[in-house]
Amino acid sequence: LPISGRLVNQLDAFAQMRLIANSAESRDRTDLMDPHDEQADLAQRARSYLDVNCSHCHRRNAGGSAAIILTADTPLTEMKLLDQRPTQGVFGIPDAAIVAAGEPSRSVLLYRMAKLGGGHMPRIGARLIDERGLALISKWIESLGTQQSADVPSRLAGLAKQLDDNDKADRDGKITSMAQ
Description:
40% of the residues lie in helices and 2% in strands. It is mainly alpha-helical. It has a two-stranded antiparallel sheet. The chain is elongated, with a radius of gyration of 19 Å.
């Protein structure tokens, strides 16, 4: 918000306007980054993206059906997603993990972002794939592992083919079960 001709943090501005108390809790927050600012740290950008787009459900006591915590201020080791077996489906991904460190193609979180229809995240309101967000999270997942690949686009193309194959299998399964 602009205050006296300069931009300030919203909580600070609200406190200055006496709309909220200037609590110590508001001072202990993690500042979020522009996820598309390529000059900023990759991990901070990805964590900011997940916080803004996913943590309204995926946080402690928020009601999301997966027990992951995607707030930016949660330490990576406490997010319950690295190399964890998904509890809400693996979509036919061999050796799937919620986030497979270093391997975007095994990461269900990325798959859910990359598909449309059932299983897509976020569930409500999304009708398009956020290609920039998808590339950012893919790059971040890749950076979490020991193996590095400079060719993120070909990995995304492989994931897209896997999505098409899985969606076709889903459709074929539904058609077969409906015919029985």
